[in-house]
Design brief:
- There is one protein chain.
- With about 375 residues, the protein is an alpha/beta fold.
- The protein has a domain of about 250 residues: Ribonuclease Z/Hydroxyacylglutathione hydrolase-like (Metallo-beta-lactamase, Chain A), CATH 3.60.15.10.
- The chain has 9 helices and 16 strands.
- The protein is globular.
- The relative contact order is 0.16.
């Protein structure tokens, strides 16, 4: 099928100078982007047993919250700028608003009802968005980790064109955004280890271990990345989607230390894709690697709680993360969707998810968030 005949939601195909730049990338070998080491992941037909399991009623109930989740209104909507210079707001899944040194960066914004190319099928939201895009106010940068539907949403991108934000994307992903109407002049399209200066911030695309593609015919033709955003006073890291790999330590050495890391801890499967999504324990280990083996800054668990993308129970990723963080003395923040926090002045630590977990009686035991408690100032 000609790229022009694809549904718009599938995005665009790299051509011309963009395609030539892709072919020059050290990450592009033998006609495809490659990870630094081979990865294990099931193909479409090997996933059929998992699809059958998703239909089992008891397991299906455990993969969703038992009730309407308590949303918070972001401080970016209700209050002024952060007193400490750094404020982080988890907006659900991998969408995070970071207010850093007077600038505002939105990571992986997905406001759509489904993470799918179609409005009538695909994983649906487990909770509403905590705030409308128009409520978030001005943005300096929109950062995209890769082109999967739960990280790159066409209607959301089209709505964000009305802002003055620069769109920072991995190599090749700019073809999608240009097809959707983003001006080329507002794209910062980067290979791993490349940086762009945006409004006084340095945005750097860093390695990850994942894959790409919005259809069966375009896998491995755009790059995936984690991201470092550095301001004059603060630094943050967003993992995007990734398996655990040795590159975290190098990223920490080159770009750290970080005041906050946003780490993928959900949608894991040891059977179907062990190398492209981290388990919660691997996520905590990645945070430690990024911090040179020390507890480091604050870990914000992301990529859980909003879309049902794996077979594990809905609450399991955050519970395992909190437990592992306590065992390794890592400071973890566990906000409700929409909740904001300043790493320097106090963290959300209440195990709010407990009231919404569907679990057998034998599993009714909560991790102890006090293991990571950091009292708020005042």
């Amino acid at each position: 099928m000609s790229a022009r005949l694809w549904p718009a939601s599938f995005g665009g195909r790299p051509t011309g100078e963009r395609l030539e730049r892709i072919r020059r990338s050290p990450q592009y070998r033998d006609g495809a982007f490659r990870n630094a080491r081979p990865v294990r992941m099931s193909g479409p037909f090997e996933m059929l047993p998992m699809l059958r399991e998703t239909l089992r009623r008891a397991d299906r109930l455990r993969r969703a919250p038992a009730g309407r989740l308590p949303l918070a209104k972001p401080a970016a909507v209700t209050g002024g700028p952060p007193a400490s210079g750094l404020r982080v707001t988890w907006l659900g899944h991998a969408s995070v608003l970071v207010e850093i040194d007077g600038r505002r960066v939105l990571f992986d914004p997905v406001w759509g009802e489904r993470c799918s190319p179609f409005s009538f099928a695909g994983p649906r939201r487990l909770h509403p968005v905590p705030a409308e895009l128009s409520e978030l106010g001005p943005l300096d940068a929109v950062v995209i980790s890769h082109d999967h539907y739960d990280h790159l949403d066409m209607p959301t991108i089209r709505a964000l064109i009305a802002t003055d934000a620069v769109f920072a994307v991995p190599l090749g992903v700019g073809a999608h955004l240009e097809r959707w109407g983003v001006p080329a002049a507002r794209l910062a399209e980067l290979d791993w280890h490349e940086s762009a200066d945006v409004a006084g911030l340095t945005l750097t695309a860093t390695p990850g271990q994942h894959f790409c593609g919005r259809g069966l015919r375009d896998r491995w033709q755009t790059l995936w990345a984690s991201w470092v955003v550095a301001g004059p006073e603060h630094r943050v890291y967003h993992s995007g989607d990734t398996g655990y790999f040795p590159g975290f330590a190098e990223i920490g050495e080159r770009h750290g230390p970080f005041d906050a890391t946003m780490i993928q801890i959900g949608a894991y499967s040891s059977e179907y894709w062990p190398d492209i999504h981290m388990t919660p324990e691997e996520g905590v280990r990645a945070h430690l690697d990024l911090s040179g083996g020390e507890p480091g800054g604050v870990l914000l668990p992301i990529h859980w709680g909003t879309f049902n993308l794996a077979l594990h129970p809905w609450e399991e990723p955050v519970e395992r993360t909190v437990r592992e963080a306590g065992a390794t003395e890592v400071t973890v923040a566990v906000p409700r969707p929409g909740e904001s926090f300043e790493p320097a002045t106090g963290l959300p630590l209440d195990p709010w998810w407990e009231a919404f977990a569907v679990r057998p009686a034998a599993r009714r035991c909560a991790p102890d968030p006090s293991l990571n408690a950091r009292p708020a100032d005042g």
